[in-house]
Amino acid sequence: MISSLRKGTLHSWSGLIQPSISHFQKRFFANEPLQKVKEIALNAKRMQRMAPKYDLGATVSVRRSLSQTFSQLEALCARNNVRRQFYAQRFYEKPTARRSRLRSERHRARFRAGIIRLVKMAKELRKWGL
């Protein structure tokens, strides 16, 4: 693609994304076949559509009352462990301490899953009358 560009017309990617194919063809590709130019222009339009203009992150819209909105936001933050991550990033954590913490968290998660599985099995057995 770059080899077919005329000398002195190399622009940034934002310059390559043009709204019309004919303008795109005149500006950048003098000797390319029309099908290839259409394909490149279509890909450029897809790239333009995919690139977000700004990132709002997780948002909560105010619909009913402000207190309900704040409770929704608090629940969203709790689900995503925002407070935990905030406190975890306050200070530097040495790599060995991080590995140890992650190992402990994995063990706790596995243990919790095992207990939940056993409780579920006990409930099933009780339901069957054993």
Question: Percent of residues in helical segments?
Answer: 55-70%
- Secondary-structure element order, N to C: HHHHHH
Radius of gyration: 28 Å
How many β-strand stretches? 0
- Poorly predicted runs are 1-21
Principal-axis shape equals: extended
Strand content: under 5%
SSE-based structural type = mainly alpha
**Main β-sheet description:** none
**How many domains make up the coordinates?**
3
Helices, by number, come to 6
> What is the CA-CA span between the terminal residues?
73 Å
Q: What does the average pLDDT come to?
A: 75
What features would you describe in this structure?
The longest helix has 34 residues, at 95-128. The chain has 3 domains: 2-50; 59-91, no CATH class; 95-130. 2% of the residues are buried. The chain starts with 12 loop residues before the first helix and ends with a helix. It has 6 helices and no strands. The protein is extended and about 75 Å long. The chain has helices spanning 13-16, 21-28, 34-50, 66-79, 82-88, 95-128. By secondary structure, the protein is mainly alpha-helical.
